[in-house]
Automatic annotation (TrEMBL):
Organism: Polioptila caerulea
Any single Pfam family the record assigns to this protein: CCDC34
Protein name: CCD34 protein
Coiled-coil domain sequence ranges: 2-135
Annotated region described as Disordered, given as residue ranges: 25-60, 76-102, 115-138
Domain of life where this protein originates: Eukaryota
InterPro entries assigned: CCDC34, CCDC34/181
PANTHER family to which the protein is assigned, alphabetical: COILED-COIL DOMAIN-CONTAINING PROTEIN 34, NY-REN-41 ANTIGEN L15 -RELATED
Lineage: Eukaryota, Metazoa, Chordata, Craniata, Vertebrata
């Protein structure tokens, strides 16, 4: 009877320990799942923060690029305007030079015309040469 009682006690102890082990295992599994869930949540939160940071950096870079492009475009337009202005000035100078050259040419032509009227005409058959040219040997 003692042996049976002892055996029963051992069975009860075994069952109790088994139940406690199962409960501890369930607690451990639940704890582990909770940790994994928190870890996933933390990683997701961290990834979202990193993504937001990257997006912000990307936007800042885009803004910087836009600003630099606008500055470059403004500078280019200013250079183009300066170039056109210089070309117009050169064109005006060329026109002025051309006009001055025409005026000078007209003045010289008029002087020549005036002088040509007053200049005596050469004799057509002078010095015994027919038509003003020598014929034959020298």
């Amino acid at each position: 009877m003692n042996k049976e009682l002892e055996k029963m006690k051992q069975n009860q102890e075994y069952e109790r320990r088994k139940r406690i082990a199962e409960e501890k295992h369930k607690e451990w599994v639940q704890k582990k799942r909770e940790e994994e869930r928190r870890e996933r949540k933390r990683k997701l939160s961290q990834e979202m923060a990193e993504k937001a940071t990257r997006e912000l950096e990307k936007m800042q870079l885009q803004e910087k690029a836009d600003i630099k492009y606008k500055e470059w475009l403004k500078k280019k337009k200013a250079e183009e305007a300066e170039k056109k202005k210089k070309e117009k000035e050169k064109e005006k100078e060329r026109e002025a030079e051309l006009q001055e050259k025409r005026t000078r040419s007209e003045k010289i032509f008029k002087e020549w015309l005036q002088n040509a009227r007053n200049k005596p005409q050469p004799a057509l058959n002078g010095y015994g040469f027919p038509h003003g040219k020598s014929t034959g040997l020298y």
